[in-house]
Amino acid sequence: GPPSMSGYTVEADLRATKKGRRMPDMGVINQGYTLDVMGRHQRLQIRTWAAELEKSVHVPFTVEPDVWYRAKLRVDVNGDEGTVRGKVWKAGEPEPGEWSITFVDPIAVQKGAPGIYGDSPIDVYYDNISVKVTE
Fold first, then answer.
1. Which of 13, 15, 110, 115 lies at a C-alpha separation of 20 to 30 Å from 64?
2. Residue 52 above 90 pLDDT?
3. Sheet holding 101-105: strands in order across?
4. What are the angstrom distances between the C-alpha of 88 and each of 23, 71, 119?
5. What is the mean pLDDT of residues 38-53?
6. C-alpha–C-alpha distance, residues 129 and 47, integer Å
7. What is the dihedral of CA 55, 3, 79, 99, to 10 degrees?
């Protein structure tokens, strides 16, 4: 999508592999925010830019190799402030009612393209990617 997009939710299925101690970082991008499923660090992170990690939050999350996960990222902007919510759960299981991680940005990114994210020397798999207008 174009960088002028806003008001959408992005979802994707993600699967990490493992080689030795190596596990990938993988995730989805919405409007300038990344939901990073961090395999080696066993946590979830929402951030704006990797160079400004003070603008990030993280929570513990167990990532198992060769297991499909569903990731969902939504951004709601109200004036200058943005609320960024992410969910990650095992694919095929019911979607949790609660968000896994939330980040409130006092100076929100107003617009940005959807995408997928991966940082790994080993394989990462993606499937069932969708971008939907937030209701």
1. 115
2. no
3. 101-105, 81-90, 68-78, 8-16, 124-133
4. 17, 4, 18
5. 90
6. 20
7. -60
